[in-house]
Amino acid sequence: MHSYRPSPVLAALGVCSEDEQLYRALLARPEATATDLAADTGWAVTRVTRHLRSVLSLGLAFRTPGRPARYTPAVPEAAVELLALRKQAAIVEARVGASVLTAEFRARREAEPFMVIRGAEAVAQRFFQAQQSAQDEVLVLDKPPHAVLPIEVRRSRGVGYRTIYDVAALGNPADVAVVRSAGSSCRVLRDVPLKLVVVDRRTGLLQTGPDVLVEVESGSLLDGLLRLFELLWQQATPLSVEPSDGPLTAEDQQLLALAAAGLTDQAIARRLGVAQRTVERRMQRILKALDATTRFQAGLRAGQRGLLV
């Protein structure tokens, strides 16, 4: 029995490791009998015979005439080429089959405007697949609890994101920092009504539970979800803005946006990772800079001056 067993190299072509081991034994001893191969591999003759049938069917070896039966290995280059051609043919056949399945699936979807996906793993996978397929734009409504976090997987490839976060979704300074880095494409709103991802305005993913997802492809339901998003987008407050030449710094603008979203000084301090007294002092400076007496008035004047858009 050989003490050294090289790593398999034909697995990608559908050859199991034991078949490949037997093929290698034949390469080392052409014209071998099953008994010879049993001695070389340390296998029982019945095991050798079983794998010989597989090796022969794969075209890796041939049986020579006469008794006892002897086996000759195929030339590796020719054997691998044959296996590769079979693999390519199988891929083509699978693609043809997939087109048939796709046509059947689309026919069912035309009759049923939505599909329900169940299971936490399936829900997470569908969210990821949908965003990976995005070409132009992804719209997100995000609120806790997070069974699946919004993942902006294609922002770097030119796909635009607009995300509305529920205030409760920004639970710590790290969350706020991530949102700030996204620029004006992110806004914050108190009491976001649902969790939603819409891809290229043609596929809507509405999460109705921790492990339940409703996928909508077209029709009045998707149109309604799009109208809801745009309405909430107009109501939501920009959370992160570009520095301006006005009386507010970028940090001031962020603080005012959080306040306009309804957060208390204590909540703002917790999200920004600063002391509450720091928030109070900065708010007083903001009110003075905008000549405002209330936070509502300050937010209104900042919006009128284009400081929060």
In short:
With 309 residues, this protein is an alpha+beta fold. The chain has helices spanning 17-28, 34-41, 45-57, 76-111, 120-132, 173-181, 220-235, 250-260, 265-272, 276-289, 295-304, and strands spanning 61-64, 70-73, 114-118, 137-142, 160-166, 186-189, 195-199, 203-209, 212-216, 237-238.
List the helices and strands and how they pair.
Elements: H1 17-28, H2 34-41, H3 45-57, E1 61-64, E2 70-73, H4 76-111, E3 114-118, H5 120-132, E4 137-142, E5 160-166, H6 173-181, E6 186-189, E7 195-199, E8 203-209, E9 212-216, H7 220-235, E10 237-238, H8 250-260, H9 265-272, H10 276-289, H11 295-304
Parallel strand pairs: 4-5, 5-6
Antiparallel strand pairs: 1-2, 3-9, 4-7, 6-10, 7-8, 8-9
Salient structural properties:
single chain; 309 residues; alpha+beta; Arc Repressor Mutant, subunit A; Endonuclease, Chain A; 3 domains; eight-stranded mixed β-sheet; two-stranded antiparallel sheet; DNA binding
